[in-house]
């Protein structure tokens, strides 16, 4: 039961999708299917709600619960439509009532639960989340109890489902029994270690545990630890007993959950008296629902086996019942097709398959999709395995062992009608199929039907079908095993059928829904069977180039709408009314199709009144041709698929215009050559016929004499194939230079997208040379389409099968330069075509302030500057603000480099035709300038307190007021809040002092009255943290490497500061003894002009914290690794020169491994008060971070190990990446107390 990321496919969901794709017209959604033959209704899966569906079906078939729910009226529950003042609307019970009423009376295969889940408060993706049905059972009952507070049904759940367990401890010395009662909604029984339900109950409620040794019990009477016996008994049992089977366990070695799939037997009749504290004789229960979990510990699918105690459904033998399969698109039927045997079922599925062939695995999957149940569950018991069944009936099916595939030999599906049985609902089963059924009945007599009230059905989301009680044994073990059991207490009084206690308002509502459904089905059936035909008349056509050609493409046909169930007589009458004088006196009608060479006629439509248009193969958007059956334009026309014309390009020997026309595919090549010689005025005996062979440097190879007597179809000549006529004096074989321009035309397809509306678009095919210009091709297309005027002259685009529409084509280039070749697809649309100096750019934006729903296409000059292009874009989008810039994208449309050089041309900036540019907010500074954001950071608290006199006393007050009154954007760095105070634009050749002066002009800083630049400190922000301090007021920003700087931090100092390269600004934090926390940090400016040694650092830290240097321990923090590195003095030897001995040198903390720099955090321990764990500087945050890093490493290691041991092709159910995190299950209920 997984959602979109599930490990298992939802059977119901897949079946519904298959139906939608097979039994609908494009743009015409089918109405809900009718209720199944069994008379019971399923529940649609919203994505991953099979666990909810199984529980709801169980509650619906719990008679006591359903009747009690229906007995609550509007006075107690309120109304969803009428708002009565003073009456609270209890939405969840009302929606449950509506759902149960639809399950009882709605004429549909399955009902929806969206209204119910909306009442749960599931408005996000809860329907796509994986949850446990046992957890849902408890939460749903709690929600129902809360919803019924203050009504007559407030004790409903308690009366039906609640029982009592008493836990007892008996002292072995004095015999005193201590008791503790517990209320239970369901009994949990462990599957591991037991093989039956009775054994599990005996372990829980009969066996006792001896408490001895270290586990002795302290008796209140004896006042000492004594041996005792501990156990539990059932004090009271509910009317509906719910048992949850604990099938999921945890493997402590693999550290992963797994599912117990061993055999666990449960009875249909259960005596609970052995487990009761005191039996009163009413402890006999009967099983009425089994919720089954299919899959593993991390996901799966839920179904339910439920006993119909109220005889709501119509049970039929699963082996003998008809098989329901939804009809295909061409069937013209709304409801399911009923197959009378498994042979007919396989024939129906294979008939709809591509090539009428499927592999065995795929065939088994299709059976499950089409019928909602697998072959093994439905047919294996009676007919055996599917492979043996197919081999047995080899006159119907062809089994290929090499490919393990099955194909169809002969078929007559239930969805297709023969002329002799048009008015029948089902196809008459062949004698062989009848023999199959008879032989099966004689070999295995059918089992008697179950008694009334003991009929079992399998509920799999939308699909419901009858099963025998013996099938429950299949849920004892395996991946598809029982997960929850529901038992009902046996009582003397019995019911026979449903008493009809549904509220009248719900009956009226569902009845109205059924009427609306039937209306939708009737309308859908009419639309489904509607044929939109195109009728062509012979007076509008001529014969040219071996095919029919329309005299005018704009008026070559008339539309006609019929029903596919009408016959040929109806068609002839409609054609005469439509055509009038255009219809010949003795006319015939042929099907017609457009080919590259023109139009061709195929099958003649004839037949009796019983022959429908559908049976003749007339489909939607078919073209029909009306003529006298002899000639068109006084020329004979060949019909049929065997005379279908193939378009050939025949090039003459002198390099003149090619002969491009269609030739019947049964025509011999020699006959084609004779016609070409007549066209070129050549003697047949003086020429030879050649074709191109090879790849790259192709050769011209002459056809042999045998090939000349062969039909062109057998020579593998297709539409657009090239043939060359050469004089016999020339060589039969010669090399063709790749640079030689052979004047051979090819076929391109052009679609007209100039017309308005959503109607069918006209498509034509034209022949052209690679040297033709795009303008010529556009002119020919406009002429063929009959377009005299088009906006801005019109333009052509290439349409790629994968990339879609490409950029508009320039009229001045050749087809070869435009990449147009054989079988290219083009689109003619209104708009201006680009010139040779123009390119097409597509503009999009990520800004929410701009209302740009789609990409904007623009023509710009390739030599235009980036700045001018930006102005054009802003003008096109009507943006008055100039603070924007353009950014390039990579091949997959992601943001890439910013176009910073506004003076550079688009071509120099590598902006190509068809590129996508992103318009982003923010002005690009001129070349050689930067415009970083300025963030105001506070100083460390201890540093501020060190000089709280004079200047700082009023300055700190001003800064604090600035923070308190600001409502602007803030960020975090070094765990201190920062404030965005503005943006400055400064030259890279300016000095640091110049930058500080500009910062002082910002309004927020200017209001503070900072007297001099020496009171400002500028720092670089890296990854949201304060880093390098900019030093040296005379240094240029270029030398300080600020070319790519986007953010700078400014700090206001309590006193003047003039740092040099020998100063390092650090943050020092003293660890609080015997804790994992640190005191607030203090700032330390360390002068390393005398050497950056460990001893020197310790001394300045000791002076700062007033701790004796011999009692401190210093460590540097590495936040990304969550580690602390203790700083120690490491002496290293220097290389001796001239034979001198090597002298030791003190370590430099600026180098490896410490790399001390601005912004580093140092931790300090006072060993006088924290003598233990010298090496431990970690905080709790560090330990959590280390644990997370270790977890990531272990996951990656486990993934690598799994990939090594995993078998090829196996499905990995333990793959962490495929496992979605579990989400909590909640149902929101209003307060009704």
UniProtKB/TrEMBL annotation:
Keywords: Coiled coil. Residues 413-450, 1133-1155, 1193-1233 are annotated as: Disordered. SUPFAM superfamilies: Cysteine proteinases (SSF54001). GO terms for cellular component: cytosol; nucleus. Residues 507-534 form a coiled coil. This is USP domain-containing protein. InterPro entries: Papain-like_cys_pep_sf (IPR038765), Peptidase_C19 (IPR050164), Peptidase_C19_UCH (IPR001394), UBL_USP40 (IPR057763), USP (IPR028889), USP_CS (IPR018200). The keyword Transcription does not apply. Residues 1193-1215 have a biased composition (Basic and acidic residues). The keyword Protein transport does not apply. One of its GO terms (molecular function) is cysteine-type deubiquitinase activity. Residues 430-444 have a biased composition (Polar residues). Residues 41-490 form the USP domain. Residues 1133-1144 have a biased composition (Basic residues). One of its GO terms (biological process) is protein deubiquitination. The lineage of its organism: Eukaryota, Metazoa, Spiralia, Lophotrochozoa, Mollusca.
């Amino acid at each position: 039961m997984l959602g979109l990321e599930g490990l298992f496919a939802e059977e119901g969901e897949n079946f519904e999708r298959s139906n939608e794709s097979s039994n609908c017209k494009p743009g015409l959604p089918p109405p809900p299917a009718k209720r199944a033959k069994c008379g019971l209704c399923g529940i649609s899966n919203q994505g991953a709600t099979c666990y909810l569906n199984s529980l709801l079906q169980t509650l619906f078939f719990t008679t006591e619960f359903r009747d009690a729910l229906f007995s609550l009226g509007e006075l107690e529950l309120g109304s969803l439509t009428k708002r009565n003042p003073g009456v609270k609307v209890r939405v969840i019970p009302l929606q449950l009532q509506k759902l149960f009423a639809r399950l009882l009376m709605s004429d549909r295969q399955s009902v929806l639960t969206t209204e119910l889940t909306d009442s749960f408060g599931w408005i996000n993706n809860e329907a796509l989340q994986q949850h446990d049905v046992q957890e849902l059972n408890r939460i749903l009952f709690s929600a129902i109890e809360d919803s019924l507070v203050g009504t007559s049904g407030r004790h409903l759940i308690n009366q039906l489902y609640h029982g009592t367990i008493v836990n007892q401890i008996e002292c072995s010395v004095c015999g005193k029994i201590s008791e503790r009662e517990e209320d239970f909604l369901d009994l949990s029984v462990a599957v591991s270690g037991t093989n039956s339900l009775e054994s599990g109950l005996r372990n829980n409620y009969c066996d006792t545990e001896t408490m001895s040794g270290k586990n002795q019990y302290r008796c209140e009477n004896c006042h000492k630890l004594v041996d005792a016996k501990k156990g539990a008994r059932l004090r009271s049992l509910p009317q509906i007993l719910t048992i949850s089977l604990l099938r999921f366990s945890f493997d402590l070695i693999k550290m992963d959950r797994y599912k117990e799939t061993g055999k666990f037997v449960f009875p249909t009749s259960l005596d609970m008296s052995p487990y009761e504290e005191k039996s009163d004789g009413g402890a006999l229960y009967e099983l009425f629902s089994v919720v089954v979990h299919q899959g593993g510990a991390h996901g799966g699918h839920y179904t339910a086996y439920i006993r119909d105690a109220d005889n709501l459904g119509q049970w039929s033998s699963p082996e003998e019942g008809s098989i329901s399969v939804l009809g295909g698109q061409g069937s013209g039927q709304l409801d399911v097709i009923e197959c009378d045997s498994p042979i007919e079922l396989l024939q129906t599925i294979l008939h709809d398959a591509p090539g009428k062939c499927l592999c065995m695995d795929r065939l088994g999957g299709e059976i499950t999709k089409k019928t909602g149940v697998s072959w093994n569950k439905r047919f294996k018991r009676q007919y055996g395995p599917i492979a043996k069944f197919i081999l047995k009936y080899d006159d119907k099916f062809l089994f290929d062992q090499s490919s393990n595939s099955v194909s169809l030999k002969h078929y007559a599906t239930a969805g297709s009608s023969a002329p002799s049985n048009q008015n029948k609902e089902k196809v008459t089963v062949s004698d062989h199929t009848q023999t199959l059924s008879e032989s099966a009945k004689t070999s295995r007599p059918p089992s008697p039907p179950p008694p009334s009230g003991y009929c079992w059905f399998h509920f799999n989301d939308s699909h419901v079908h009858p099963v025998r009680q013996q099938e429950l044994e299949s849920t004892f073990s395996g991946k598809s095993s029982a997960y929850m059991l529901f038992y009902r207490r046996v009582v003397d009084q019995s019911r026979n059928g449903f008493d009809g206690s549904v509220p009248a308002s719900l009956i009226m509502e569902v009845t109205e829904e059924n009427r609306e459904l039937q209306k939708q089905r009737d309308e859908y059936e009419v639309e489904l069977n509607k044929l939109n035909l195109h009728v062509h008349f012979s007076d509008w056509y001529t014969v040219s180039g071996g095919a029919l050609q329309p005299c005018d493409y704009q008026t070559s046909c008339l539309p006609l709408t019929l029903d596919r169930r009408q016959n040929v007589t109806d068609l002839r009458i409609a054609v005469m009314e439509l055509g009038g004088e255009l219809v010949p006196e003795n006319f015939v009608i042929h099907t017609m199709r457009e080919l590259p060479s023109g139009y061709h006629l195929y099958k003649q439509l004839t037949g009796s009144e019983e022959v429908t248009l559908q049976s003749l193969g007339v489909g939607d958007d078919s073209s029909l041709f009306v003529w006298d059956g002899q000639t068109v334009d006084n020329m004979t026309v060949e019909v049929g698929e065997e005379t279908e014309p193939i378009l050939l390009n025949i090039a003459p020997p002198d390099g003149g215009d090619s002969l491009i026309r269609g030739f019947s595919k049964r025509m011999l090549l020699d006959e084609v050559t004779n016609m070409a010689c007549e066209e070129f005025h050549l003697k047949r005996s003086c020429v030879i016929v050649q074709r191109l062979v090879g790849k790259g440097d192709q050769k011209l190879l002459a056809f042999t004499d045998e090939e000349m007597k062969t039909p062109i179809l057998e020579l593998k000549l297709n539409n657009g194939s090239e043939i060359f006529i050469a004089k016999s004096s020339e060589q039969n074989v010669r090399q063709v230079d790749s640079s030689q321009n052979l004047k051979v035309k090819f076929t391109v397809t052009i679609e007209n997208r100039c017309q308005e509306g959503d109607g069918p678009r006209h498509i034509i095919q034209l022949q052209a040379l690679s040297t033709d210009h795009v303008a010529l091709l556009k002119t020919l297309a406009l002429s063929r389409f009959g377009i005299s005027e088009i906006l801005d002259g019109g333009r052509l685009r290439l349409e790629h099968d994968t990339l879609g529409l490409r950029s508009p084509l320039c009229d001045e280039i050749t087809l070869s330069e435009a990449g147009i070749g054989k079988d290219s697809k083009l689109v003619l649309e209104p708009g201006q075509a680009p010139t040779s100096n123009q390119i097409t750019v597509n503009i999009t934006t990520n800004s929410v302030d701009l209302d740009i729903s789609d990409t904007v296409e623009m023509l710009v000059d390739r030599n235009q500057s980036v700045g001018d292009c930006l102005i054009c874009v802003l003008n096109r989008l009507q943006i008055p603000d100039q603070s924007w810039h353009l950014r390039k994208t990579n091949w997959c449309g992601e943001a890439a480099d910013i176009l910073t050089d506004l003076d550079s041309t688009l071509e120099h900036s590598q902006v190509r035709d068809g590129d996508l540019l992103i318009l982003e907010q923010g002005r690009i500074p001129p070349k050689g300038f930067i415009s970083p954001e300025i963030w105001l950071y506070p100083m460390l608290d201890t540093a501020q307190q060190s000089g709280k006199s004079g200047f700082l006393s009023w300055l700190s007050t001003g800064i604090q007021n600035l923070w308190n009154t600001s409502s602007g954007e803030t960020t975090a760095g070094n765990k201190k809040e920062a404030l965005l105070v503005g943006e400055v634009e400064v030259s890279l050749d300016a000095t640091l002092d110049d930058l500080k002066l500009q910062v002082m002009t910002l309004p927020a800083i200017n209001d503070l009255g900072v007297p001099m630049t020496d009171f400002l400190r500028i720092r670089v922000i890296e990854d949201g943290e304060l880093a390098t301090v900019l030093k040296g007021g005379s240094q240029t920003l270029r030398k300080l490497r600020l070319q790519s700087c986007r953010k700078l931090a400014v700090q206001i100092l309590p006193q003047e500061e003039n740092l040099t390269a020998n100063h390092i600004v650090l943050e020092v934090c003293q660890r609080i003894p015997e804790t994992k926390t640190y005191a607030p940090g203090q700032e330390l400016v360390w002068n390393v002009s005398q050497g950056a040694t460990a001893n020197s650092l310790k001394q300045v830290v000791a002076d700062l914290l007033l701790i004796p240097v011999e009692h401190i321990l210093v460590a540097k923090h590495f936040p990304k690794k969550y580690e602390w590195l203790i700083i120690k003095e490491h002496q290293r030897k220097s290389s001796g020169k001239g034979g001198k001995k090597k002298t030791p040198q003190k370590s430099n903390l600026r180098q490896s491994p410490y790399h001390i720099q601005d912004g580093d955090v140092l931790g300090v321990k006072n060993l006088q008060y924290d003598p233990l764990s010298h090496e431990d500087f970690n905080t709790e945050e560090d330990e959590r971070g280390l644990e997370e890093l270790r977890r990531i490493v272990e996951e990656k290691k486990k993934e690598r190990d799994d990939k090594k041991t995993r078998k090829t092709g196996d499905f990995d159910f333990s793959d962490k990446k495929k496992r979605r995190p579990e989400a909590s299950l909640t149902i929101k209920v209003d307060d009704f107390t």
